[in-house]
Structure to design on (255 residues):
């Protein structure tokens, strides 16, 4: 199985059920599948194909999830990056991974604008903030006018879906290549260990989605079972407790 098939199965079985929640925002499984199709089809129109890399410089958000699945649906490789990286650190990772597209928003885009011309391999920048309207591609426009038609491409289980950069001393991160099969199997094993079901509600608090724990143990595990993932906008402990109580959360993973 691949990540595309995993999400499509969840959308078929749990279409109207909430997949992602952030405050009052709710994104159902059907909406997540449709929105990620729009991203996937937009990337295809840009000339992105299997094996191309797409860097994601985004905080935890429903948009992160939509974009991640849009990238992986077409066999492209998602590269989630830490939003706390400095410009020179990002430049080093760009040179290492050579993404064809960057998806980000202000304030993460602003410090990159002056140096973007040096990265000849970056062909497109998708801006979620709409601050640079007319200069970069607008995520809002993709959502408003993009095609939600089902993507017919089928990544192979062995295809690379994700490059996760490790932490390390003196900023020497290593890109770890994770296949669709790696991620799907990890989700299945985690769900079995957690005894997770579609009735569960998992809270994503301090774990960023660019990190494998947040991505795999919380997000992908929940998607594989049709559970709901509740995100928090900040790191307030009182806010966490209120959210757990309000959402009747049953799963919380922390480090």
């Amino acid at each position: 199985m691949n990540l595309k098939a995993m999400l499509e199965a969840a959308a078929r079985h749990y279409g109207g059920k909430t997949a992602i929640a952030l405050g009052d925002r709710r994104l159902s499984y059907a909406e997540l599948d449709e929105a990620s199709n729009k991203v996937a089809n937009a990337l295809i129109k840009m000339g992105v194909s299997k094996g191309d890399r797409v860097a994601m410089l985004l905080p935890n958000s429903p948009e992160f999830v939509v974009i991640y699945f849009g990238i992986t649906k077409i066999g492209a490789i998602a590269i989630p990056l830490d939003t706390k990286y400095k410009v020179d650190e990002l430049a080093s990772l760009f040179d290492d991974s050579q993404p064809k597209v960057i998806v980000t928003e202000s304030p993460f885009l602003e410090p990159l604008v002056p140096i973007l011309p040096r990265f000849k391999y970056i062909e497109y920048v998708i801006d979620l903030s709409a601050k640079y309207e007319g200069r970069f591609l607008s995520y809002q426009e993709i959502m408003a006018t993009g095609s939600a038609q089902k993507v017919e491409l089928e990544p192979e289980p062995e295809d690379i879906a994700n490059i996760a950069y490790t932490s390390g001393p003196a900023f020497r991160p290593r890109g770890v290549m994770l296949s669709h099969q790696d991620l799907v199997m990890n989700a299945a094993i985690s769900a079995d260990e957690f005894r997770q079901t579609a009735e569960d509600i998992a809270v994503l608090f301090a774990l960023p989605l660019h990190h494998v724990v947040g991505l795999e143990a919380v997000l992908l595990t929940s998607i594989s079972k049709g559970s709901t993932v509740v995100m928090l906008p900040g790191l307030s402990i009182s806010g966490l407790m209120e959210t757990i109580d309000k959402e009747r959360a049953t799963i919380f993973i922390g480090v």
Observations:
- DSSP finds eight helices and twelve strands in the chain.
- The chain has a mean pLDDT of 95.
- The radius of gyration is 17 Å.
- The longest strand covers residues 160-165.
